[in-house]
Input
Amino acid sequence: MKILLVGAGLSGAVIGRQLAEAGHDCRIIDSRPHVAGNCHTERDPETGVMLHLYGPHIFHTDDEGVWAYVNRFAEFVPFQNRVKTTSRGAVYSLPVNLHTINQFFGKTLRPDEARAFIEGKADRSITDPQTFEEQALRFVGPELYEAFFKGYTEKQWGCSPRDLPASILKRLPLRFNYDDNYFFHRFQGMPRAGYTAMVAAILDHPRISVELETPYRPEMADRADHLFWSGPLDGFFDYRLGRLGYRTLDFERFTYRGDYQGCAVMNYADREVPWTRITEHKHFSLWESHEGSTCYREYSRAAGPGDIPYYPIRLVREKSLLAQYVELARAQEKVTFIGRLGTYRYLDMDATIREALDTAEAFTATGQNGARRPQFSVPPL
Output
């Protein structure tokens, strides 16, 4: 078959590679001048530091198959993300752990003591938390919520934590030991040569052609047997029902001679500080040595028509609009919507790759048994 894939990020690259190995001819187009989508990396010509141009990406997974897959195309170096946060003039470790609790409250609590102490702070009248704020007050209490979560969340999402679902905070762990590794997955690392080199290796197959700086035009699909779309779901339909809501990021680059902050990620929890965090990118490549340093202050705001969509909002209005776009998508023939933008979901890299592998496998299987190929490998709702 002749396959057209829109987007040369992880979803398009992995599906394209799998289908090319199965004997299909895959044409992959991308409007950007590079492959790898938002995990694109490149060298800073001024400092030599490997930059994550669209924000930092740390690979972490418990999926042994996905870990084996990425190691097929890149050498991964062990890396653990140890995030710090500045709150009220002091620096703490994240996620909230025993050291954070003892430092913040001026205590020397042991794990069981800390667990009982925090439970005493919690609002036990909240039995079924529905909002971000209720979730925080129930499980960490008002002091830790105010210091570490409230201001940062208001900056990140542009609204009150009372308006956000509890599920957002459920992803953030609370630890009663001194483990400050931000992620808890078995496999964690960084590709030594960067993510763009890894994606380029995935795309290196004789049945794959890649065309950059090539926006999609509807007539392109007429020359293909099937289309995989990893762009915005609403964008496929030219936003005819309105735009799905996203948050976007602005990056303020600056350089420093030496070591600016001593860690890769420093969050700023206070509402009065306009940026959400500062990332120092040479700390993402600890096997390298650089005298200079490149850093970025990150600012979060509502995405406009010309902005890069990062985080789907998925509140009541957005879910209602999403349902309408899903209905339109299900009426399409020979189109599969994939990835973070195509399914309007927040996805880590490992989940993106797993879904891409499963999508390619299902595509091949349904072709063999004659079944109708679904428009979504994973339902957006």
Q: What stands out?
A: The chain has a mean pLDDT of 96. The chain has twelve helices and 17 strands. Residues 62 and 181 are 15 Å apart (CA to CA). The radius of gyration is 22 Å.
